[in-house]
Amino acid sequence: MDRRDGLFPVYWDAGAGKVWLEIPAMEQDFLYVNSLAAGLGSNDIGLDRSQLGGTRLVRFERVGPKVLMVQPNLDYRAATDNPAEEPAVREAFAEGVTWGFTASAETDGRTLIDVTDFLVRDAHGVAQTLRASGEGTFSLDKSRSAPVPAMLKAFPRNTELEARLTFTGDNPGREVRSVAADPNAVTVRIRHSFVALPEPGYEPRAFDPRAGYFPLTYADYAAPIGEDTRQRLLTRHRLECATPPDASGLCDVKEPIVYYLDPGTPEPVRGALLDGARWWAEAFEAAGFRDGYRVEVRPDSIDPLDARYSTIQWVHRSTRGWSYGASVVDPRTGEIIKGHVSLGSLRVRQDYLIAEGLLAPYAGADAGGFAQEADDPMLQLALARIRQLSAHEVGHTIGLAHNFAASAVGRESVMDYPAPLATVAGSGIDVGDAYGVGLGAWDVQAVRYGYTPEASELEQILRENQDRGLLYITDYDARPSGAASPVAALWDNGSDAVQSLRDEMAVRRIALDRFSEATIRDGRPLATLEEVLVPLYLRHRYQVEATAHLVGGVSYAYSARGDGAAAPEAVPGAVQREALDALLATLAPSELALPPAALQLIPPRPPGYYDGRERFDRRTGVTLDPIAPAETAANMVLSFLLDRERAARLVYQHDLDASQPGLRDIFARTQEALAAMPASGAYEQEIRRTVHTAWTQALMGLAADRSAAPAVRARTEAALRDLHGRYAAASGGSEDAAHAAWLAADIERFLDRDYDPEMAPRPVRTPPGSPIGD
């Protein structure tokens, strides 16, 4: 057999098609990680190349002829010096046996096991993921699955085993059909990694929710009575001083943190990724380490599967999607063993497309593009974002969580999601400052907290954050449509959300007015103008969401007793009303109308360009629907405004403080604004009727929402009764009167409980948004 020596020696028996593993000694703990070595290539399905699965602590145990891979339950522990206390916890919660093998040979305590069946199985949950994503029912076909001999590798600290697996199904979904060579037989590769535990000496650091890290959590039943049994540790790399700090306050390190970039990344992207990833060197120096962190292009001498090396790789998909900063983490202590960054290659192309819509650059001599990279403003914007993206994902792999409040106090963190900043410059648009350069103050402070050798400095760092106004709000509080924090939002810009929305609308208006053939290069089908139009027309979507957070919003921080942080406080009523007015202004027919060039120039799709993913939905067949984009934008605004959680806060805030706008105030102000909106010509009048339909449907949806508070449903139904009266009072033979009568009848059926939701107008599909290129 062909032997590969390493942590666990592995043997390939080509004649039998079997993989054998040598176990040097039983009952020694190590880490088991599964991952997707070769993926499906669809962001929507979520089976990407190099996607990490769970990290589990396991060990081999011999029971007669059997060898079991046993996984202890680390979620429940007893950190105690009393040896009798630990079994009480261990035996109370179920451990796991991941797999069972047969000992086929034994020599001097070394045991040989056949791991072929262990490899040729769906350890990554591929079939379940395909089913959950609506892509069909697939099952593993073992007759078309086998180990991959070339990818059976062993290193000093890890052993890698890989298998090619084929999943068959008879009704594959659209996404599978779009990416698989044979959609009825999808083949991927699953990797199994056995990784040595790190050497002793790592000092875990307690998690603090104000510091900006991911927590490793477990229950410690040996904690003193009165103390929290739930223990939380930071996830971070090991970084230790080899020498005492010198006069500059810096120490030399025992072993630096080093990341290696995939050499297959093309230029100029490669240089941008290196630049952004290297920004973190500043933070580690601020934490007290000289040359404690660096990034290099991976040399041929380093195998990316070697667990000793952290990697940054370039991943391709058929559609734009998320990038990831994942890590292999010791589940006992939170120590990061290997950082694993995956960057989506379509990110840079999406930003380029956004810039084309803003700048309409292809006029005159540049109609065919730019000969020099330095002269291409879209490329410069896209590379600026790639630098930020590289820093962002590396930040995750050094332990940091998102900070979606950073943009509210400036560009204080690369761990936020920034949208490309554009400003009005005369009659044009300036994108020269689209993205920030370098780390923000929050990033430096966060690394100081997690990595400084002096634990006595931690509270001081948190106090500095508070004194400097460095805000921190992460995913759970920022992503929901009903999010309460007025400072936490994705893809927003500026400390004043209302003014930033107005600024976005001004930029959007100028760009739409300039929209023309000059947004695409010579030779491109005119139908592809729509791909540029979509992100431009919906450019304000994220600032709308940020502004909506002010309505019914509550300012708060992740505070602890004694830290002096302010108590939660409702956003002032005047600010809430101003935010509402700014949101409603985006619904004006003049704002929602498509530019004349779009209406006149965009033809039906030509052969070879039928993909509709990144385009507006339509009810007009092959031609561009002039109303669907307005409906999309209106539904977007109203869905945030009438979120059931936001509605409940509005009710209760007004109950507690009459100066705050209540839900009924929101209804009245919105209805008055919509009724008073001017519309010039038949096209804008049709848009206005579309907005009224969206408003009516949104109210009915909220009134029928069983998860909404009773107070919300009661007030919403009262608003519908009032709206019914307004519509029913309309008279005459105009289009407006006919539409009002139709809406009145719809509301009447709803109020009489004779309303069939299936009869409601089917909303148009909103083109993909987030990530706007992450």
From TrEMBL:
<dbReference type="InterPro" id="IPR032534">
    <property type="entry name" value="EcxA_zinc-bd"/>
</dbReference>
<dbReference type="Pfam" id="PF17148">
    <property type="entry name" value="DUF5117"/>
</dbReference>
<protein>
    <recommendedName>
        <fullName>Peptidase</fullName>
    </recommendedName>
</protein>
<feature type="compositionally biased region" description="Pro residues">
    <location>
        <begin position="764"/>
        <end position="774"/>
    </location>
</feature>
<dbReference type="InterPro" id="IPR024079">
    <property type="entry name" value="MetalloPept_cat_dom_sf"/>
</dbReference>
<dbReference type="Pfam" id="PF16313">
    <property type="entry name" value="DUF4953"/>
</dbReference>
<dbReference type="InterPro" id="IPR034032">
    <property type="entry name" value="Zn_MMP-like_bac"/>
</dbReference>
<dbReference type="InterPro" id="IPR033413">
    <property type="entry name" value="DUF5117"/>
</dbReference>
<feature type="domain" description="DUF5118">
    <location>
        <begin position="3"/>
        <end position="39"/>
    </location>
</feature>
<feature type="domain" description="DUF5117">
    <location>
        <begin position="51"/>
        <end position="241"/>
    </location>
</feature>
<feature type="domain" description="EcxA zinc-binding">
    <location>
        <begin position="377"/>
        <end position="674"/>
    </location>
</feature>
<dbReference type="InterPro" id="IPR033428">
    <property type="entry name" value="DUF5118"/>
</dbReference>
<feature type="region of interest" description="Disordered">
    <location>
        <begin position="754"/>
        <end position="774"/>
    </location>
</feature>
<dbReference type="Pfam" id="PF17162">
    <property type="entry name" value="DUF5118"/>
</dbReference>
<dbReference type="GO" id="GO:0008237">
    <property type="term" value="F:metallopeptidase activity"/>
</dbReference>
